[in-house]
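Much of the work behind modern protein science is quiet bookkeeping, done one molecule at a time. The protein below has been through that process, and both of its lines are reproduced in full.


***
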Amino acid sequence: MMPASPPRRALAFEQNPPWSIPLRFFLSAPLFAALAAGLLAWQGDTMLLSRWSPRTLALTHLLVLGCLSMTMLGALLQMLPVVAGMAVPRVGQIGALVHIGTACGALLLGAAFWRQQPLLFQGALLLLGGSFLLFLSACTVAMWQPPPQGAGAVVAGVRLSLTALILTVALGCLLAAAFAWPERLQLPLQRITDTHAMWGLLGWVGLLVIAFAYQVVPMFMLTEPYPRWLTEHLGGALFILMAAASVSTEFTGGGRLFHQACLLLIGLAYAIFAAATLMLLARRKRPQRDATSCYWGTAMCSVIAASVLALWPAPADNARPLAIGALMIAGFALSVINGMLYKIVPFLTWHHLQQARERGAPKPPAVSQFIPQHRAVWQYVLHLLGLLLLLGACYQPRLSHIAGTVMCIACLALSANLGCATMKR
C-alpha cells in the first residue's frame, strides 16, 4: 500500500460559526434542485434538445448556482474555521448577504435564460457578481495566513478551488454582460462558455469536492486516509492542466493535439481520484452501507463513466455532451452534495443542541437518530432512479418528463429529511 499522509487535524469545533449561517445554504440547495427538476418534468424533451438551448441553460444554472454553489459556499463558511482554523470575518453579515444575493441571482439568471430578456441578465449580473465578490474577499482575508499543521492538503485544495471560482465568475460575468447588452458586446460565446463550464464544474466544484474528500471521507466513512502522492499532487496537476487547456483551446495543428492531450489527462486524473475513493470505500472500517457511502460510490462511478464517455472516440452528436453533463452535475456533484448533507446537517444540529444543553437544555439524541437511515436510503434509491432516467433521456428525450418527476421527488424528499433533522429536539 502506498504511504498515506492524513491531511487531517483535530477539528476546532469551538470556532463553529453560528448554526443558522451554513444551515440556510444547506436547506436552500435541495429546493433549487427540485425547481430545476420540476422544470424538466414540465417541459420534457424541449429541455434536452441541445446543451445550447436557452431552457437547458436555465435548468443548468439553477442546478449549478442554486444547488451546487449554494452548498459549496455554506460548506466553506462552515469548514474553513473548523478544519483549517481560519475564521471568516463578519461571518454572520457576510453569510446572510451572500445567501440572499446568490439565491435571488440564481433565480434571476434562470429566468433570464428562460425569457431571453436583457434586463433580467443585468439584474442577475449585479446580484451574482456582487455576492461572489463579497464572498471571495472574505475568504481571501480568512486564508491570508499559513495553514495549521495537518490541514495543508485541504487548504491547498480550497485555495485552488477559490482561484478557479474567480475565473469562473469573471467568465460568467463576461457572458452575462454579452446577453445583457447584446448590441455592445460581440464575443466568441461558444469558446468562452466551454472555458467557463470547465472552470466552474471541474475547477470550482471539482477541486473543492476533492479537497473536502481528503477530510470527510476518512472522517465520516471511517476509511484510511488518501495516499500521500494523491493529496500532494492531484489538485495542482489538475489546475495546471485546466490552465493549459484554456490557453490552447484555439490552437491548430500540433497545438490542437496538445489541447486534446490536456483534456485527456484531466479526464484520467479525475478517474484516478474516483478509483482511489472507491478503493477506500471498499476497505472502510464500517462495512455496513449507509446513504452517504452509497452517494459517494455513485458519484465516483459517475466520474469514471463521464471520463470514459468523454474520451471514447465517437461521432459528434447532441446526446453525448448532454450525457456527460448529466453524469458530472447530477451524477457526481449532486450525489456528493446529498451524501455530505446527510452527515453535516444532523451533526450541526446535534452540536447546536449540545451547546444549548450546557445552559440547561435536555440531552440531544445521537447524531444517527436525526434522520432515520431507511428514509435516507429510500431517498437515495429515488435519486439513483432519477439519474438513470436522466441519462436515458439524453438519448431518448421522451423519458425526460418521468426523469424530471423522479428527480424532483428525490430532491423534495432530501429537503424534507434535512428539515426534520433541524427540528429534532
